[in-house]
Amino acid sequence: MYFFLFHLSLSDTCFCTSIAPRMIVDALLKKTTISFSECMIQVFSFHFFGCLGIFILILMAADRYVAICKPLHYTTIMSRRVCAVLVAVAWVGSCVHSLAQIFLALSLPFCGPNVIDHYFCDLQPLLKLACADTYVINLLLVSNSGAICTVSFVMLICSYVIILYSLRNHSAEGRRKALSTCISHITVVILFFGPCIFIYTTPCNHLPHG
Questions:
Q1: What integer is the mean pLDDT of 60-77?
Q2: Which of 51, 114, 142, 159 can bridge 61 by disulfide, Cβ–Cβ 3.0-4.6 Å?
């Protein structure tokens, strides 16, 4: 659990630093201009560390499931090597997701206004600047980021339903200890996935530029 918590804290820290420092500087200096390359870096880092956080939360749910439902086999199933491999897969998967976002952004033709009505670069506000029909890219965005958010959220909720159901056979003390670790995780999941699902499963509503 602490191994996963370390990587979750690392992803959250990097996630914040991908947006907050630039936003603070822009607010203090009243300079809100960002180059295209910097914008792409922001898109990549934002999605990379955000997706990494999602995957780590899934791994933490799996860890809690094994610890509560299969306690006698926990050290065998969740060995250090297994945990390291799972985290490595999470990093690679996050990189693949972020590269897909970058490729979508680079495929957009920009030839008109260059003012983003947002406080950081993301595909949703960038779609509004494209001077072409963005319907297909919009669908790809929803199917990529939206699917990751929605499927991951459903998986996490189902895993905790199974965990809570299995607690009925535990003692009162065992249920209390298990719930103390699960409730905080469930709270983080709801607060994290709620806005993500709302943003990335709702198509960008705007008229395409001609």
A1: 85
A2: 159
